[in-house]
Amino acid sequence: MSAEWPLWEVFIRGQHGLAHRHVGSLHAPDAEVAIRNARDVYTRRNEGVSIWVVRSTDIVASAPGEKGPLFDPSNSKVYRHPTFYDIPDEVGRM
Amino acid sequence: MDKDLFEFTLRMGDNALILAQRNAAWCGHAPALEEDIAMANVGLDLLGQAKLWLTLAGEIEGRGRDADALAYFRDARAFRNCLLVEQPGDYAAALMRQFLFDAWHLPMLSELTTSSEPRVAEIAGKAVKEAEYHLDRSHDLIVRLGDGHAESHARMQAALDDLWRFVGELTTPDVVDEALRARAAAPDLASVKAEFDRVTDATLREATLAAPRDATMRKGGKTGYHSEEFGYALAEMQFLQRAYPGAAW
Questions:
Q1: Sign of dihedral through CA atoms B201, B204, B207, B209?
Q2: Which structural domain, as residue segments, surrounds residue B16?
Q3: Domain assignment present for A91
Q4: N or C terminus of chain A: which is more exposed, having fewer CB within 10 Å?
Q5: What is the CATH number of the domain that holds B128?
């Protein structure tokens, strides 16, 4: 049965103010059932306030083979990180 | 002891307990992983409700029996669940059993939220949200499978043909129901039946299924007369506590 159902990627927002996070995938015949199944499979322990589901085939991903050209250039540019000044203690955690 | 209220809370608790047990038996056997987890979730919701109802029943009885004692150390004749929830069957029957129960359970719990018994109203208030989701889910599955392809339709119709004769008991009042209605502790089952009829009529029509209206209605569960299958289900459920009384995690 599930072999005939398409795969969906599930994103859950844990609490207001946070972004949706990818939590896994599941099979479902359509979007409505995908949401229902996501509720049952991924929010059993009160994890979520919102669910997104996306057909896995609709996600366009970067190719693992292009990892070098895509990400290596930013590796040696430490000046892009805001680590060269002191934060006063009164500011607290940032 | 408030005998009527004791009987009533046993009925509510045993319905939830036995359906939870029936659903739990599908764990690892449902046709898809997602269905498997959903079925177990519904069962666990019901198990939680059973614990609340049976704890209350034990308090009303006042003989020191808690929910576990009532669940594991009563024999079949002392159980007050309706015949519907104890019926065995294939997955189509499991879904149809759930739907027919939900279609009764939701209006019943909704009415009970205004019970003159505050402890009853409190449990109903908690359980009604779960029942709403259960009906939403089972309604959807009945429509999809009933109005699906030829085989799914035939299997849902066969399940309905088999289970319909057990729904009469749910909405037919007896002396306990009447006594509780008189003191506004429990609803008039006629109004629960009206809502049950509305939901089942609409859902079955949408699902292209037809209830066998002329079936002879069975009853007995509410007063402790159960089907033969019930004994086997109870033996499986109670085995561990009977063999090792008081065993705990």
A1: negative
A2: 3-209+220-243
A3: no
A4: C
A5: 1.20.1260.10
Model confidence pLDDT, tens digit, residues B15-41: 999 999 999 999 999 988 999 999 999
Stated as kind and residue range, the H or E segment containing A22 is strand A21-27
Task: Classify residue A44: in a domain, yes or no.
Answer: yes
Asked whether the beta carbons of residue A37 and residue B41 sit closer than 8 angstroms, the reply is no
Contact A36 B37 (CB under 8 A): no
Give the predicted TM-score (pTM) of the model: 0.88
Domain that holds residue A21: 2-86
Q: Is residue A78 predicted with pLDDT exceeding 70?
A: yes
Looking at residue A55, which CATH number applies to its domain? 3.10.20.520
Helix (H, G, I), strand (E, B) or coil at B132: helix
Inside any domain, residue A72: yes
Predicted complex ipTM: 0.72
Type of residue at A2: S
**B137 close to A (CB below 8 A):** yes
Residue A20: strand, helix, or coil: coil
Which chain B residues are closer than 8 Å to A26 by Cβ? 33-34
User: Is residue B249 included in any domain, yes or no?
Assistant: no
Helix B189-206 crosses helix B91-112 at what angle (to 10 degrees)?
Answer: 140
Strand partners, A12: A21, A51
> Which of B31, B38, B144 has its CB closest to that of A37?
B38
The number of distinct structural domains making up chain A is: 1
Give the nearest partner residue to A36 out of B31, B33, B137, using CB atoms.
B137
Best of A25, A35, A36, A45 to substitute, by most chain B Cβ atoms within 10 angstroms, is A36
